[in-house]
C-alpha cells in the first residue's frame, strides 16, 4: 500500500483509523513474509483489505470537505470510490488484492488534480469575500488622490490574479497546471489585498 496522501489528510477524523489499519497491515505483511503459512496469508489479506478501505474512506472524507463549484465532479469520484470498496470486500487472494489496489492508485492522479483545483477555487473565493469587504470602505474626501488610485489598483490586481488562477482550471482534467503555480497567483492576490488594507489603515482617522 502506497501512502501517497496529502499532509492535509492528517487533520481529518478518519486519519486515526487509517494509521491504525496501516500499522496492522505492516505487521501482518511482515509475518506472512516470515512464516508464509495459510493462517498468516489470510491475516495479511484481511489486514490489507482493511487498510485499503481505511485509506479510501480517508480520501472520501477529504474530497467531501472540499465544497466548491467542482462538487459534482467530486461526487462522481466519491461514487466510484464507494463502489470500489465492494470489490475490496470480495477479494480473497493476494493477486486479487494487488489488482484492486492498482485500480485505486490509477485514480490517484485524477483525485489529486480535482482536490487541488477545488482548493484553489475555495481559496480564491475566500479572497474574493475579503475584497468585497475592503471595497465597502469609504475613503475620506480629504484623502490623497494618489493613495486612492493606488488602492483601486491593488484591488484590481488582486481580482485579476484570482481570475488568472481560475481560468486555468476551466479544463482541470485536460490542461493541468501545477498547484504551486496556481497558488502563486493567489499569493499575489492576497498580497495586493494586504496592501489595500494597509492603505485603508493609513487614511483612517484616529482619535
Question: What characteristics describe this protein?
Answer:
single chain, 207 residues, mainly alpha, 75% helix, 0% strand, elongated
How large, in whole angstroms, is the Cα Rg? 24 Å
The gross shape turns out to be elongated
Ends distance = 63 Å
The helical percent reads over 70%
Largest sheet: none
Percent strand: under 5%
Low-confidence stretches: 1-5
| Strand tally | 0
Strand/helix succession:
HHHHHHH
Count the helices. How many? 7
Helix and strand composition category: mainly alpha
Mean pLDDT level:
89
Describe this structure in words.
The chain is 75% helix and 0% strand. With 207 residues, it is mainly α. Helix 3 runs antiparallel to helix 5 and helix 5 runs antiparallel to helix 6 (145-167). The longest helix is centred in the first third of the chain and has 27 residues, at 38-64.
Amino acid at each position: 500500500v502506497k501512502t501517497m496522501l496529502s499532509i492535509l489528510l492528517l487533520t481529518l477524523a478518519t486519519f486515526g483509523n487509517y494509521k491504525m489499519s496501516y500499522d496492522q497491515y505492516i505487521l501482518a505483511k511482515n509475518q506472512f513474509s516470515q512464516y508464509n503459512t495459510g493462517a498468516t496469508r489470510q491475516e495479511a489479506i484481511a489486514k490489507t483489505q482493511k487498510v485499503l478501505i481505511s485509506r479510501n474512506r480517508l480520501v472520501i472524507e477529504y474530497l467531501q470537505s472540499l465544497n466548491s463549484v467542482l462538487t459534482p465532479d467530486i461526487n462522481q469520484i466519491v461514487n466510484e470510490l464507494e463502489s470500489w470498496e465492494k470489490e475490496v470486500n470480495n477479494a480473497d487472494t493476494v493477486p486479487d488484492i494487488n489488482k484492486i489496489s492498482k485500480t485505486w492508485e490509477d485514480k490517484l492522479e485524477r483525485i489529486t488534480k480535482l482536490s487541488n483545483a477545488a482548493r484553489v477555487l475555495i481559496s480564491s473565493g475566500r479572497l474574493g469575500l475579503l475584497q468585497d469587504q475592503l471595497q465597502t470602505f469609504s475613503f475620506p474626501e480629504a484623502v490623497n488622490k494618489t493613495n486612492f488610485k493606488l488602492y483601486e489598483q491593488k484591488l484590481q490586481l488582486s481580482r485579476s490574479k484570482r481570475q488568472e488562477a481560475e481560468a486555468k482550471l476551466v479544463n482541470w482534467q485536460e490542461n493541468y497546471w501545477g498547484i504551486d503555480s496556481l497558488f502563486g497567483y493567489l499569493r499575489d492576490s492576497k498580497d495586493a489585498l494586504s496592501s489595500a488594507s494597509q492603505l485603508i489603515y493609513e487614511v483612517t482617522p484616529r482619535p
